[in-house]
Design a protein that fits this description.
Layout lengths: L3 H8 L7 E8 L6 E9 L2 E10 L7 H21 L4 H4 L13 E2 L5 E6 L4 E2 L7 H17 L18 H14 L9 H8 L7 H7 L6 E3 L8 E4 L5 E4 L6 E3 L1 H12 L17 H15 L5 H5 L1 H22 L11 H18 L1 H17 L2
Antiparallel strand pairs: 1-2, 2-3, 3-5, 4-5, 6-8, 7-10, 8-9
Helix pairs in contact: 4-8, 4-9, 5-11, 8-9, 8-11, 9-13, 11-12
The protein binds 2-acetamido-2-deoxy-1-O-phosphono-alpha-D-glucopyranose and magnesium ion.
Length: about 375
């Protein structure tokens, strides 16, 4: 998609030691384009992570990069204070020759260069329950480290990102506009969302009444946004910081369950394979409470099952909206891809509805044991 010369030209704006020799695309994520770039310093290879920022999604790269810079600098200090290794435990952006942390190429596309956390890997699905416990602990810890970050120093990189009611309204607007002519084929899916309209307001409503506190959250807690250390098997670095902004702890909790506790992939087409794994749910709850529990309120714990359901419903509505809009937001591999993703999310919502009481019981029991110590 990009030639070696094009990448080389982009990289020439960042000051890095050595000679650029190779570039490999990393096919993770539905939004940005990511590459591992290799430099040679003598015989030694040094790697960096080059990313083209999707400015259709992140419309203000100055604000986006100001957020990323502030959050990574803040975490860097915390990691050093806790005796950790800031080179591996957080991303940071390299300065460019324009005095910023990103450049615009000749087509007006935005690029940034991150450190590359070597000897690490990520999971797209869980191969043992313990992995998901560790994931919960890692995202809980990330949130805890940001607990005293001044949230007024963060821009809202995507306004109303987890405003589920707004996502519902966007879906209804897409249906009305029917830009792709696909809306008439998805009446059952639209009805599924419509039947849950009233629930889309609940979490936000609880912030307005003060029942749920606003915090600084990651907002995109997919399992594959955690890098695990190859040698120890432990989480080493949380990545994908573009949506770090004020939010609810439950957005992070719920979105992680949506992706990681599903027994099938996000775009599984055999819906009989889609379900919520209650054991994985429990592992994540326990991991999350182990690190973030003492900073969470009981109301947050009580809303855990609801947040898992609403984050799944919201994501399903977003995939459906994009399908009806003609696939303009998420990267797709084939024309029905967004619809398949929507079906998976909605099947998972339906399964969570059946298991709701069990999820509540698990969350409250874990809270008593881990946080209240009884
Ligand atoms: C997008 O880029 P990626 O894959 O980390 C999306 C998330 C969705 C997710 C669904 C900025 O995340 O909100 O939950 O796809 N990110 C953005 O897989 O919209
Ligand atoms: Mg992301």
């Amino acid at each position: 998609m990009f030639t070696f010369e094009e990448i080389s030209e982009i990289l020439s704006h960042f000051s890095t030691a050595g000679k650029f020799v190779a570039c490999v695309p990393i096919d993770e994520g539905h939004i940005n384009n990511t590459f591992r770039v290799e430099y040679k310093v003598g015989e030694k290879s040094i790697y960096h992570l080059l990313q083209q920022i999707n400015t259709d999604v992140f419309k203000n790269p100055d604000e986006l990069m100001a957020n990323v810079d502030r959050v990574t600098a803040f975490r860097r200090d915390k990691i050093i204070a806790e005796g950790g290794d800031p080179e591996r435990e957080t991303l940071y952006c390299k300065p460019a020759d324009n005095g910023k942390k990103y450049i615009l190429d000749k087509h007006g596309k935005a690029w940034r260069l991150y450190n590359f956390v070597g000897d690490s890997f990520s999971y797209n699905s869980i191969d043992s329950p313990e992995v998901f416990f560790k994931a919960g602990k890692a995202f809980g810890n990330f949130q805890k480290q940001l607990a005293d970050f001044p949230s007024d120093r963060l821009y809202e990189t995507i306004p109303d990102f987890h405003n589920t009611a707004k996502r519902y309204a966007n879906l209804m607007n897409a249906v009305k506009a029917n830009r792709s002519g696909r809306a008439q084929n998805v009446a059952a899916e639209i009805d599924f969302a419509r039947a849950r309209k009233d629930e889309t307001y609940i979490l936000l409503g609880k912030t307005l009444t003060g029942e749920l506190p606003m915090r600084v959250t990651h907002n995109d807690t997919k399992l594959n946004n955690i890098l695990f250390d190859r040698a120890t098997g432990e989480p080493v670095c949380i990545v994908d910081l573009d949506t770090v902004m004020p939010g609810l702890s439950l957005y992070d909790f719920g979105d992680a369950i949506r992706f990681g506790a599903n027994t099938a992939a996000e775009d599984e087409t055999d819906l009989s394979r889609v379900s919520l794994d209650l054991n994985l749910y429990e592992q994540y709850v326990r991991g999350f409470l182990t690190s973030a529990g003492d900073s969470l309120t009981k109301a947050e714990v009580e809303c855990m099952p609801l947040s898992a359901k609403l984050m799944t419903l919201e994501c399903g509505m977003r995939f459906l909206t994009d399908y009806i809009d003609g696939d303009i937001y998420f990267r797709v591999a084939y024309p029905r891809h967004n619809l398949d993703r929507c079906h998976t999310q909605f099947a998972l919502v339906a399964d969570m509805e059946k298991k709701f009481d069990a999820m509540s019981e698990i969350s409250l029991r874990a809270y008593k044991e881990i946080v209240c110590g009884s």
